[in-house]
Amino acid sequence: MKVTIDGRDVELQEQKTILKLAKEMDINIPTLCHHEGLSNYGSCRLCIVEISNNGNAEIDTSCTRYAEDGMVIETETEKLKERRQLIGELLLAQAPESEKLKDKLQELGVTKTRFEAKDSDCIVCGRCVRACNEEVGTGAISFVGRGYETKVDTPFSINSDVCIGCTSCAEVCPTGAIEVEDEGATRYIRYFNTELELKKCEECGDYINPERMIEKLKEEDFSYYPEENFNLCVNCRRSREMNKFADKVLEASK
Ligand code: SF4
Ligand code: FES
């Protein structure tokens, strides 16, 4: 399969998205809803490229579109820049207070929006939903509402009884909408009206991860991982391992 991207010819041995191909060729295409570890969703449209093939010309999202034989792809034309700026303004109107989003959009030259600002900090990119479903396998959150009113939430907007408090949703969120706070024995994920009980380190008494998260990890294949480690904080785990190592070395040197 032969493809031309920004004037450079390339031969492909396997199917891949235009975005992946561009990355491999050190061509930078802006993205927002895309995340390496998650499935492609194609909601933000920042990654659009111009494609022509067999006399057809179109604009499509490079994160969802697979390269095809004979495609001629442009990633950085005036038309694309203008469209990306417009898309950027629409995204900014969806989460006008997000500093993370502002920083990202500044790279595209978008610093303000002509559209009505929403009272929200979510751009409905779906990264959190995909992380929860695909990476954690929990499915604690999903899209609710329709059209302009669409948002991400737990069922009935109440404290989730399946969320394990792993914070994957917060880690992948490009706007910083989801904040996680540990206060005493409780982890709060207020964006999803959810709170979880934290487990205490059995050595030093510091709070570590939520009970539910530890139980979920124990269900996974951690046969190589000593069960006692689940009940320790990072520091106590390390010092216990160091002590065991020191004991072995001393024993061997006797
Ligand atoms: S909360 Fe964050 S990750 Fe989830 S859809 Fe909204 S912007 Fe995307
Ligand atoms: S990164 Fe491709 S549509 Fe969002």
List the helices and strands and how they pair.
Layout: E1 2-5, E2 8-11, H1 18-24, E3 48-53, E4 56-61, E5 72-74, H2 78-94, H3 99-106, H4 127-136, E6 142-144, E7 151-153, H5 168-172, E8 181-183, E9 186-189, E10 194-200, E11 207-210, H6 211-219, H7 234-252
Parallel strand pairs: 1-5
Antiparallel strand pairs: 1-2, 3-4, 3-5, 6-7, 8-9, 9-10, 10-11
FE2/S2 (inorganic) cluster is lined by residues 31-34, 42-47, 61, 63.
Can you give keywords for this protein?
254 residues, alpha+beta, Ubiquitin-like (UB roll), 2 domains, five-stranded mixed β-sheet, four-stranded antiparallel β-sheet, 7 helices, 11 strands, 30% helix, globular, binds iron/sulfur cluster, binds FE2/S2 (inorganic) cluster
Characterization of the model:
- The termini are far apart.
- The chain is 30% helix and 19% strand.
- The protein has helices spanning 18-24, 78-94, 99-106, 127-136, 168-172, 211-219, 234-252, and strands at 2-5, 8-11, 48-53, 56-61, 72-74, 142-144, 151-153, 181-183, 186-189, 194-200, 207-210.
- It has seven helices and eleven strands.
- The chain is an alpha+beta fold.
- The strands form three sheets. The chain has a five-stranded mixed β-sheet with strand order 2-1-5-3-4, covered by helices on one side. A four-stranded antiparallel β-sheet has the order 8-9-10-11. A two-stranded antiparallel sheet has the order 6-7.
- Strand 9 and strand 10 form a beta hairpin.
- It has two domains: 2-106, Ubiquitin-like (UB roll) (Roll); 127-244, no CATH class.
- The structure holds iron/sulfur cluster and FE2/S2 (inorganic) cluster.
- InterPro entries: 2Fe-2S_ferredoxin-like_sf, 2Fe-2S_ferredoxin-type, 4Fe4S_Fe-S-bd, 4Fe4S_Fe_S_CS, PSI_iron-sulfur_center.
